[in-house]
Amino acid sequence: MPLPFLKFPCVVRRKILSNLNYCDIFRLSMCSARTLKSIENRTRTPKKVIYVCRDNQLEVEIYDKHDCENVHSIISMHRVEPSLFYGEEIKINIGGKSIQCREWSDILSWRLRKMSYSLKYINPRQGKVLQALQAHINSLWPNLPLIKFEIDFYRGFCPSLIDSKVKDIRFAFSNMNKSMLESILTSHSNLERVSIAGQFNGTLGADSKLMRVPSVRCNVVNNSSLTEDLLEHFKGNRLTLSLASNCQKAVSQLIKDWMFDAKYPNLKTLIVHLKIGAHPFKNITKNLNGVKWDKYRWPTEEELGTNHDILGLFDWEKSYDIRQKDTGKMATVNCKHDAVIFFVRDCQNQ
């Protein structure tokens, strides 16, 4: 028996909402514009929302914690051919737009997780649905602390479709180049984190807007020029390079430039992982007048700017502390055969 939600007093509606999970709240909010208005900003706010944009598929992952493993609900919308558009038809209201959909069950997300709620629709313009979906989520939870966007394809994708509230973007498609990257960074100059997970073609140069993004993660496999570019010109806070090769000289030069010439004034963390078979790192701390790591000063998550799981990847007893020549800032360097971590100490921990 359906409940007349909108006819209940506000106190009763709040009580009902407090007992619903994020997926149930989302489903309820799609009933009508009035229902959405009655729910807006009246439920607990998720810690993080991730939009996953794939060819013909949109997913919204909702998290109760910042931990990427602790996903609470997954909502997906699939663009399908008319021949697959079967089942009971429903009309939903998303972001002020009315869309004809049908429910789709037993669907797994791209991370092989069970969908909390899955819909299929016919629409040649996926951008219309994406913009409506973002507007809807923003209405439900206007004070989201973290919104992340993952792009798994680029063909026909328009950077303007990404909401201005997005601060974190991950590019997961191959054959990305500078032109694609710069077009997105130009239209979203307030990004705080950018991750390039697919293979990048070409180089960037000192003028690239990526060099000024506060936090950058990049897969640099088989691209030594890109590795050297980032190590030489990065002006942000945190840089992580994966699948690097033969970059000992560039990493050593960065640390020396920071130590003796006070370059990289904003840099807080550098992490470099080598690909299998790459020329291993040797003693990068040689000739830096480093002193053995003070084991009582464990790095904080703020200093590393990453998950604390990174702590288990290094033998911290082999770390060295170094001091910047003119400012007295302290940094810690840890080097093993396939990885290097360099992080500047928080002034309060020095």
UniProtKB/TrEMBL annotation:
Pfam families: F-box (PF00646). Residues 2-49 form the F-box domain. PROSITE patterns: FBOX. It comes from the Eukaryota. This is F-box domain-containing protein.
